[in-house]
Structure formats: structure tokens, C-alpha cells
Amino acid sequence: MSLNRYRYVIAVSEHLSISRAAQELYITQPALTKYLNKLEEELGLRLFDRTVNPIRITYAGEVYIREGRRILELQRRLDQQLSEIAQMQRGRLTIGINSDRGSWSLPILVPLFRERYPHVELNLQEGHSRYLEEEILKNHIDVAIGTLPVREADIDYLVLSDEPIVLAVPAEHPIARRYDLTGNSPQTPYLLPPEWLNGQDMILLVEEQGMGRVARQLLRSHNLRPNVVMTLKNNTTALRMASAGLGMVFALADTAARADLLKPMAWFTLSDPVFCRQTIAYYHASFGLSPLAKEFVELWRERMGRDGIGKGCRAVAATPREQAGDDRGAGALQKNLDNPPLPEL
User: Fold this and answer.
1) CA-CA distance, 238 to 341, in Å (whole number)?
2) To pair with 170 at 20 to 30 A between CA atoms, which of 122, 129, 157, 229?
3) Sequential DSSP letters for 279-298
4) Is 276 helix (H, G, I), strand (E, B) or coil?
5) Helical ranges in the chain per DSSP H
């Protein structure tokens, strides 16, 4: 419906003259008269009494003009809000992320995003990878931050960065005690023979979690058979349980560097270069990224790419102590290497 029907009538009401209203509207008087005649015919009501001079507004005309002004104001406000959305001055963005990653990244990113876009409503949904993928397909999440792989064919992604994965082993573990741990850290993990993991107690994340999938991928790629002692949902919890001496665990170098550990840990890698998983921004393939989602992704790249603790992670080819010189726990270690149990992955 054209809004001119309201603009034309309001102009006539303000001038009480069709000729002066036509001049303001930059149309001819006959064209405006014809338009009013057609409109009144459609309504079945007279908006103006044109038998007097100046013309008089009828009661129906008063109602039409009053509500017409409201309609024009609503349209003006709608146009303004849509313009603000197009210019990202206003809008709504829903971000998905797992709780571990969110605990250290969101306190950095959310204040920065709100500073740049103070009138944008920012919503957060936390959950494991599978849940976030389901919410994206339901259009409940605009963009999620996670890791490869993704399960759903209708989800597309952008790679944000590489995240080094290290093996966290209690410093008192027989494997760790074979090394001089001076200089050992999540950023300088020692290169470990993969077969030494066979039979060792290990903590895994549930497969719905990205780290859970990555850990299983690493074990399968090296054909390893650890003894899985527990399966957890939280990366930090798993790392702290490992630091309590309950087993070894794969962890992000970033998470390992930030974690409040109960006891000292040793850090290893099964490959050189250090295996990395890819951090991604993923979204519904049919809809792509909204302008606001693109801004959040760029902010992530800008800040988390710069601040990522694991960026400089590199493998160190440390030499283990000879068992004859330091055989603490060597018997148990050799027994596990010779008779590895089958894992429950």
C-alpha cells in the first residue's frame, strides 16, 4: 500500500487548498483532485467538504488524518531501525561457545564488542559441540566458536587459528620421572614415543566435546591402547583431575597454561611439529554470516589470534634418563608397554 494516500490527504488538510497542496507535493492540481476522488470512492466516505471555500475536513477526514500521521511515523521509525541494523548500529547477535573456551575468551571479547556496538543485543549460548550444531540448524545461534570436525553437512565454517594439543602427565608419573623437566612447559612439550601411552591411565572428554573427538583421533592415528579411567565433560576439570594423579589427558596448550593445577605436570607431544586442531567459526550454510557475526569473528581473530598463549608451542626432543640410572616405576611402566589393555574410547 502506497503511503502517498496519507501524505496527499495530510498536505491538503494542512493547506485547506488542493492547489497549494499540489504545489507542495510537486504534482498538478488535476492529478491531486483525481487522486482524492478515487480515494474517497474506494473508502465510500468524504474526507473533505469541497463545496465550501476554504475546504473543510469531515469527521471521517479527521480520523483518517490522525491515524495516517501515526502510520507515517511508524514507517519512519521502521526505516530508521532498519537503517541502523544495516549499519550495525542496532541488532541482535547470538553466539554459541563451549563453557571452557567461553570462560577465558568471552571476558575479553564481550566488553570490546559492546564498546563498538553498544545498542546491539548480544546473547550467549554455552554447550558442547553437538548441541551448538543442533542450535545452529534450528536458527537459534548466528555463529558458534569451536573446532573441527563438524558433523552436519548444512554447517559451513571459517578457520580462525591453529591450537596446539599437548599431553598432560603428572610430574610424579613414571614416564615424566624419566625426564629432566627443566624448561618443560605447555609451550615447550617434550617429544614422547607414542607407544609409551599403551596401557597408561588416561582421562578423556566425552565425544560430544571437540577435545574428546580430537583425543580419540590422536589415539587411533597412533594405534594406541590406553586405559581409560574416566570420561568427563569439562576440559579444565579433566586437566585438574590429571594433576591430582588420576591419569594423563590431552589438553590445549592455552588451557594448560591457564589452569589452576593441584600438582606439577609434565607436558608432552606425540609428534613434531606439535599436533594442532583448528579453531573455527561455524554457521548455517544456507544463511551465511550476518554483518554482526562477521564483526564478532574479526574481533576474535584480532584479539584471540594475538593473545593466544599456544601460538609459539614447539616440540622439544628431550632425552629420557636411562632406566638403569633412574628406574623409579620402570617395572610398572614396562609391564604396561608389554601388555596394553584395550581402550574404551
Assistant:
1) 21
2) 129
3) EEEEEETTT---HHHHHHHH
4) strand
5) 4-15, 18-25, 29-43, 59-86, 99-116, 129-137, 210-221, 235-241, 253-258, 291-307, 330-338
> What are the Cα distances from residue 222, in Å, to 150, 247, 278, 309?
22, 19, 20, 27
Q: How far apart are CA 308 and CA 333, in angstroms?
A: 35
Alpha-carbon span 231 to 294, nearest angstrom: 35
- Round to whole Å and give the CA distance between 248 and 229: 10
Residue 62 has which C-alpha cell? 479527521
Task: List, for residues 252-276, the tens digit of each pLDDT value.
Answer: 888 887 778 899 999 999 988 888 8
The answer on pLDDT for 126 being more than 60 is yes
Instruction: Give the H/E segment covering residue 268.
Output: strand 265-269
In 10 A of CB 116, how many CB atoms? 12
268 is written with which cell numbers? 608432552
Give me the amino acid identity at 56: R
Q: Which three cell numbers, joined as nine digits, stand for 58?
A: 469531515
Q: Is 241 helix (H, G, I), strand (E, B) or coil?
A: helix
The pLDDT value recorded for residue 342 is 38
188 has which bridge partners? 185
Cα–Cα distance measured from residue 40 to residue 12, given in angstroms and rounded to the nearest whole number? 14
Q: Which cell numbers hold the place of 226? A: 590406553
d(C-alpha 119, C-alpha 112), whole Å: 13
Stated as kind and residue range, the H or E segment containing 163 is: strand 155-170
Residue 93 pairs in a beta bridge with: 122
The total number of residues written for the chain in this structure:
345
Residues 40, 8: contact at Cβ < 8 Å?
A: no
